[in-house]
């Protein structure tokens, strides 16, 4: 299909996508984060537009232009992202969790810049963040919920386990041990699992991979809701 001829598999459907990293503040000038670029999430947003969906992107801090014709909600921390998602989730038909959410945050944020001391070490105590995709999937009347899994080994085992534990309809697994794909790379390759099947999306640009993944999601979504 050319860009214009893509069947509008998701015409009029509401999709929310989380994208990018989160930043967990330590003090007013410091934070803990990760190398997520947001490119995969933003590519998914454009692919969802191509298929005719109304798209909301809840994005952590990224160095990307706003996705065109999408509702963009900018957030910083995992708690902010959780709240922004939950505030609008009841309108959504499909939820795709592409963000690299920090699993933990500093237990408290110092009000003033932390000063260097005479000690050669410093300890930052961390506490667990809420699991956003699991919270969405646990809602009554939850949207069709798709997660990502970044794994370095035993990809199928860990991905299927995550899908089950979080009660997801589908999961897209990234083998982050392969160089040149996934985190902060231009290209990506995915293995996508759902309860009754799986398929591979070969290494390609994140734009191409996003269109293929959205077509798979649309097919499963339409099969599940019919
Ligand atoms: N996720 C989320 N909220 C979190 C952590 C993860 O919504 N607090 C989502 C991610 O967006 C992704 C999925 O959960 O869709 C899996 O993320 P991943 O980091 O691979 O899994 P975790 O459950 O955090 O397990 P681990 O990091 O130990 O592999
Ligand atoms: Ca994690």
UniProtKB/TrEMBL annotation:
Residues 10-219 form the DNA/pantothenate metabolism flavoprotein C-terminal domain. Its cofactor is Mg(2+); FMN. Residues 15-226 are annotated as: Phosphopantothenate--cysteine ligase. It comes from the Bacteria. Pathway: Cofactor biosynthesis; coenzyme A biosynthesis; CoA from (R)-pantothenate: step 2/5; Cofactor biosynthesis; coenzyme A biosynthesis; CoA from (R)-pantothenate: step 3/5. Keywords: Decarboxylase, Flavoprotein, FMN, Ligase, Lyase, Magnesium, Metal-binding, Multifunctional enzyme. Binds 1 FMN per subunit. One of its GO terms (biological process) is pantothenate catabolic process. One of its GO terms (molecular function) is metal ion binding. Its EC number is 4.1.1.36, 6.3.2.5. CTP binds at residues 103, 113, 130-133, 148, 162, 166. It catalyses: N-[(R)-4-phosphopantothenoyl]-L-cysteine + H(+) = (R)-4'-phosphopantetheine + CO2; (R)-4'-phosphopantothenate + L-cysteine + CTP = N-[(R)-4-phosphopantothenoyl]-L-cysteine + CMP + diphosphate + H(+). One of its GO terms (cellular component) is phosphopantothenoylcysteine decarboxylase complex. Catalyzes two sequential steps in the biosynthesis of coenzyme A. In the first step cysteine is conjugated to 4'-phosphopantothenate to form 4-phosphopantothenoylcysteine. In the second step the latter compound is decarboxylated to form 4'-phosphopantotheine. Catalyzes two steps in the biosynthesis of coenzyme A. In the first step cysteine is conjugated to 4'-phosphopantothenate to form 4-phosphopantothenoylcysteine, in the latter compound is decarboxylated to form 4'-phosphopantotheine. In the C-terminal section; belongs to the PPC synthetase family. This is Coenzyme A biosynthesis bifunctional protein CoaBC. The gene is coaBC. The chain holds residues 181 to 406 of 407 of the full protein.
């Amino acid at each position: 299909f050319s860009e214009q001829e893509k069947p509008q598999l998701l015409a009029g459907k509401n999709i929310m996508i989380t994208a990018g990293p989160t930043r967990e503040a330590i003090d007013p000038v410091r934070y803990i984060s990760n190398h997520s670029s947001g490119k995969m999430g933003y590519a998914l947003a454009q692919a969802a537009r191509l298929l005719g969906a109304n798209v909301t992107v809840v994005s952590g801090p990224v160095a990307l232009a706003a996705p065109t014709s999408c509702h963009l909600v900018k957030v910083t921390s995992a708690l902010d992202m959780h709240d922004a998602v939950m505030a609008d989730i009841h309108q959504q038909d499909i939820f795709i969790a592409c963000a690299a959410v920090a699993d933990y945050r500093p237990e408290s944020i110092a009000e003033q810049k932390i000063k260097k001391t005479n000690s050669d070490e410093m300890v930052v105590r961390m506490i667990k963040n809420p699991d956003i995709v699991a919270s969405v999937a646990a809602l009554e009347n939850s949207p069709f919920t798709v997660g990502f899994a970044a794994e370095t080994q035993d990809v199928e085992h860990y991905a299927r386990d995550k899908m089950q534990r979080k009660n997801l309809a589908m999961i897209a697994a990234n083998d982050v041990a392969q160089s040149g794909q996934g985190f902060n790379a231009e290209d990506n390759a995915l293995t996508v699992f759902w309860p009754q099947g799986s398929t591979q999306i070969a290494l390609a640009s994140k734009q191409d991979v996003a269109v293929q993944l959205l077509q798979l999601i649309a097919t499963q979504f339409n099969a599940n809701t019919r």
